């Protein structure tokens, strides 16, 4: 065993205060614990800070490519490597780890810290009655098992990084597809610039001018709300359970969930294709469509499209800024505002002709299918990586004997 501090040039704690976000939402990414994944940073929802805040919050150490950022709590132990051109700022409850490149490969160390034995130790020493957290001194004294030679570390880090590179590439492609769908929905149903709009006359409506052969309907015309809850005893072991913490911000793609074991409270059952909308703090913009049947938190609203043909547009409406804005403006409560389902079901939208509905479905449908396919590919890649990780870093599996066709996993 060797202490982590002996393998590092520096282990630096964060500032114990929140950096001010930039006024325009641009600048350097502020890394919160929720932005630290298992190996890579997820900057999709990272807050941004300006140059002044960046300089003030990096006085202790300027994060560099190859540094590691570790979460001291919520959850304890997640760690990710800093990639080139990132320029992050440490948020609260994070720690910067700068490996000594003469002793340890940064990528290898990242994955070594994610192995069960080290994760178990971190969680075992974490303290705190309400929220477990690691002290910086505990991190410095973290015991690291004997490691292979540096050249072998680099080989192992390279193999495992291939998986994360592919997963990150899929995440970016998914983000682009989701943005295109948002833009198309806004263009067709907000600005009313759908194919053939030039030859369509407009009439006045409560929403303003709309095509004369369109109508104004409620969101309830597209979906119904599923309110039935299931007792823990009726949830099969291993069934997917989705909490609000699993719902990503400003993304309609569900990437994580838990397998049900000893569920302690009632859940809402949802079906594949249902829309899960986070009722609590709707301004977090957590809206996804379900890729399978499962069980959701009772704090999620389950909207079920009334037909398969309406799924694409129903999701586009529910994930739109206007819809989430209404949910936020009409929510009840100060500390934990909750969206009003009845108001959301009565949300008024323009309803197109069947030909425009079909054209939108034809335009968006293939992108929606590809988005789900990429998410499934990433899930398979993550599963294989997690299977290989402990065997490679422990030496149980020799990387030189590994015959792995990664490309086959993404087909």
In short:
The chain is α+β, with helices and mostly antiparallel strands. It has ten helices and 23 strands.
Helical run tally: 10
Sequence stretches where pLDDT stays below 50 over 5 or more residues: none
Rg calculated over all Cα atoms:
24 Å
**Major sheet summary line:** 5 strands, mixed
Q: What's the total count of β strands?
A: 23
- Trace the largest sheet across and list its strands: 2-9-6-7-4
Named CATH topology of the domain at 2-147: Adenine-n6-DNA-methyltransferase TaqI, Chain A, domain 2
The CATH class of the domain at 2-147:
Alpha Beta
Mean pLDDT: 92
CATH superfamily of the domain at 2-147: DNA methylase specificity domains
- By secondary-structure content and strand pairing, the structural class works out as alpha+beta
- The appropriate CATH architecture of the domain at 2-147 is Alpha-Beta Complex
End-to-end distance: 41 Å
Strand content is 15-25%
In percent, how helical is the residue content? 25-40%
Q: What spatial form do the alpha-carbon principal axes imply?
A: elongated
